[in-house]
Amino acid sequence: MAILHVRDVVFRYESKYQTTEVLKGVSCAFEEGKFYALIGKSGSGKSTLLSLMAGLLLPAEGQVLYNGTPTSALNLNRYRRENAAVVYQSFRLLPLLTVEENVAYPMELRGVRGKAARKKAAELIRKVGLPDDVLHRFPDMLSGGEQQRVAIARAISMESKLLLADEPTGNLDTENGNHIIDLLLSLAHDDGYCVIVVTHDPEIAAKADCVLRMRDGTLIEER
Prior knowledge:
By secondary structure, the chain is α/β, with parallel strands linked by helices. The protein contains seven helices and ten strands. The strands form two sheets. A six-stranded mixed sheet has the order 6-7-8-3-9-10, sandwiched between helices. A four-stranded antiparallel sheet has the order 2-1-4-5, with helices on one face. A hairpin with a 2-residue loop joins β9 (about 210-215) and β10 (about 220). The two termini are about 20 Å apart. The relative contact order is 0.20. The model has no long low-confidence stretch (mean pLDDT about 95).
């Protein structure tokens, strides 16, 4: 059963001078336990679609449904905090917090604090393949690949089964990029996450269970 549905979604950016239709009736569905690649040229609408699925935007027409409920009917702050975990190309770790504090932060927003949050943070750091001694380092003391692993640990600390990633390997070298994709694949196939990755990288698309290709705001291919 799908965890996320996109139904006939239209999205427009409006300014004083013009209206641009970025998405033109897009429909697709995403299931737990699968790794999806959302591909297309710059300007095709794929990042806008990811933002809609993450609850950062609402459609002008149509619906994005999480477990059957439209995002327009949800408390979007809570949805983003508890259900739609997002990993970005630029990592977006909080620079003045340690690795442990970064990973624990989403848990604290849900009321998990103190020893329980620290214990869970340590477990998640091990899960993403990092040693315990990074827990008390700050993000700028880590490599790009390590920072992205921390960002993934922070995302899965939300305990949501929906994980969205926007060009997660864009700032990494090939070796570290491959490690991150293998980690995301493992989260999908071994832990039952629904992982949706926006990417330009054909090698990532080749590893995906399902590839959705966008062009000019429409979904033109799915395999």
